[in-house]
Amino acid sequence: MTWRDGLILAFLGLMSNKLRAILTMLGVIIGVAAVIVLVAIGQGASSLVTSRIETLGTNVLFVSPASGTPFPMSETTLIHHVLPFSDVVVPEMTAGAKISTLSPSTQVSGPIDGTTAGYLELGSVSIAAGHFLTSLEVSQDQPVAVLGANQATSLFNGENPIGSSIMILGQQFRVVGVLNPVGEGPGASQDNTIFIPITVSESLLGTNQLSQVIVKAQNPDQANLAANYLTNLYSNQFGSTSAVSVASEDQVLQTLQATRATFTDLLAGTAGVALIVGGIGIMNIMLVSVTERTREIGIRQALGATREDILLQFLLESMAMSLVGGLMGILLGLGVMRVIPVILKTPAIFSPAALMLGFVFSTAVGLIFGLYPAIKASALDPIHALRYDG
Questions:
Q1: Which of 310, 323, 344, 352 fits 378 for a cystine, CB–CB 3.0-4.6 Å?
Q2: How far is CA 170 from its chain centroid?
Q3: Burial class of 32 by CB neighbour count within 10 A (0 to 12, 13 to 18, 19+)
Q4: CA-CA-CA-CA torsion sign (384, 368, 26, 266)
């Protein structure tokens, strides 16, 4: 029997019992689809990280206190004083809050970020309408607010919110600006944030403790020097290296990349398990097939089929099942990839390497797990096979 004859018989066998074949191939289908989808998500997340590095640059530092560490507004002046080469030093005081419009009343929840006019100079946000917080508004404690793109849509349903009023923790604020959407990325999305003057947030939240200070140095080399200097400064001040965390944008994003890579590897391992389970399913059904077709095997041997012919026939049937499962898994994976940006709000980037990996893996599964049933079928004694009436 030729390979061509064996493949034709294998596909005819699949067509004769479609439901059993599909159920058998389910593990392979899910495994291959999972490989394609997970690699696409991982590459999409990596592109987000890269775009954020390009937006902020590697000369940005985040100075964050540990829980219980005093970190008042005066730290902003201190950092600006000890780092004369810093372009921007921006304090942040963040908290979650209920936000609502006046009439008609619409209520949402989201992060409130008390900050200064310098936040816009970091380059991570841009204005779509109105203006960002000004130095005058901050110094005069004016109750004004700048809305992230999602919050503007949620609160005002697409209408122009400039000049309208919103309530934050019982205090009325006038909307002076709306940000362009930045999309989902590492950390909390700025699209869901509402920015207010930090001087107002002190009285609103009842604290002068900062959540963090963002420092933008003139170049990456100065950022590294600043990180080391501030780490030593706060270690000496508080007697602990963990009292205040100093991390560059590059370090933060490298950590996020490592975390995402670990998570992707974990899910890829799960996809591999699904393929192995699918292979076990194929082996199981092929063993059942050997038992069901014992008399057929005996007749073929009586008509001149060699053990190699029987081995090839059952091996090709197993491989055909895994190949069809692999192709269906590829189609399913490509379909899910199109839905991911809509559901998860994150890009999914197609990887030809992942497609080839899934296809090759599915073929290998059929070969490896189909080998034992094929050997068992080829080893049947012709006389016993012809007498078998099970």
A1: 310
A2: 36
A3: buried
A4: positive
Return the pLDDT at 85: 78
Q: Quick one: tokens of 154?
A: 């949620």
What is the arithmetic mean of pLDDT over 118-143?
93
Angle between helix 307-344 and helix 249-292 axes, rounded to 10 deg: 140
Give the three-class secondary structure for 216. strand
Pairing mode, if any, of strands 194-197 and 107-115?
parallel
What CA–CA distance (Å, rounded) separates 334 from 202?
50
320 vs 367: CA distance, rounded Å: 9
Over residues 243-266, the mean pLDDT reads: 74
- Region at 187 (left for phi over 0; alpha for psi -120 to 50; beta for the rest): left
Which pLDDT belongs to residue 187?
Answer: 47
Q: What is the DSSP string of 245-260?
A: EEEEHHHHHHHHHHHH
Handedness of CA 221, 224, 229, 230 (dihedral sign): positive
pLDDT at 368 over 80: yes
72-106 residue pLDDT tens: 998 998 898 888 778 889 999 999 999 999 877 88
d(CA 181, CA 341): 15
CA distance 255 to 320: 43
pTM reported for the whole predicted model: 0.63
3-state SS track over 5-38:
HHHHHHHHHHHHCHHHHHHHHHHHHHHHHHHHHH
Per-residue DSSP letters for 287-341?
A: HHHHHHTHHHHHHHHHTT--HHHHHHHHHHHHHHHHHHHHHHHHHHHHHHHHHHH
Between CA 111 and CA 94 the distance in angstroms is 7
pLDDT single digits (tens) 321-355 = 888 888 898 999 899 988 888 877 777 888 888 78
